[in-house]
Amino acid sequence: MSVEVEVDESDLAEMVEQVWESYLDPEGVSPLIPTYDENQPSEVHSSVSITGSWSGHVVYASSRAAAQRAAAAFLAMELEEVSEEDISDTLGELANIVGGNVKAMLPPGAQLSLPQVVLAPEASARFPNTERISGVYGMWEGEPVSISMWQSSTDNKEEGA
Amino acid sequence: MKILIADDSRVMRQIVVRTLRQAGFGDHDLVEAADGKEALDMATEQKPDLVISDWNMPHLTGIEVLRQLRAAGNNVKFGFVTSECTPEMKSAAEGAGAAFFIVKPFTAERFDEVFAPILG
Fold this sequence. Notes:
The structure holds 2 protein chains of 2 kinds.
Chain A: H1 9-24, E1 32-34, E2 44-52, E3 56-62, H2 64-75, H3 84-104, E4 110-112, E5 116-118, E6 130-140, E7 143-152
Antiparallel strand pairs in A: 1-6, 2-3, 2-4, 2-5, 3-7, 6-7
Helix pairs in contact in A: 1-3, 2-3
Chain B: E1 2-6, H1 10-22, E2 29-33, H2 36-45, E3 50-53, H3 62-71, E4 77-82, H4 87-96, E5 100-103, H5 108-119
Parallel strand pairs in B: 1-2, 1-3, 3-4, 4-5
Protein name (chain B): Response regulator
Domain Response regulatory (chain B): 2-119
Keywords (chain B): Phosphoprotein
């Protein structure tokens, strides 16, 4: 059997809140407002993989406008100054921060990958043999943002074909 | 004082620089390294007073940079800013001689708390 998942939705929500408090909404004026809608649309996403004591993925997904806004907040720039590279770097770092915090809550022996960024909807990504086990879904200044965890099934490890 | 900021993420280096300024340490000489190898070279050649390093970086990880510096007799003040934080990592950092361990996401208050005693 797989290890028991020790990271639940309230843990994820707390991590997300810290990210908002530190970088995206330090003034506390534009929080992520929960929608609880796991099917809300996205236009860009980033992910990190975790392997070892727990295996799966942490995925950050949002609209392009929300990613641009996040980059502007991260880099202290005006929205119109934000480049494509700024958006990619910011999305990668968001996946890295949340993934690193998730990893810290897992049993010892987990490895975190470098982030992967795809400027296409989360729905275009496939994580074979995984299921979504938790997530935080919300609107940030009217734009959709989600952070979800996908756990790999353990039956397929070490099996190639 | 000269402060070396080592992180393979350009965005995160900028956030560290900005947070140092927000915490009131913007007057120091800030230099940046984009991976572990560059961090080791710059820490050796430029003799910074403080190194603020990411953990997971290409070529050399932050802890490898710290260990190599100490092995070479370099006792620069060195600490980590990382999104990965486990008890094993913290104890490895302490064992190698790290002065602090800051977990991302961080705030200017956290920087002030950690760096005020170091930077004065």
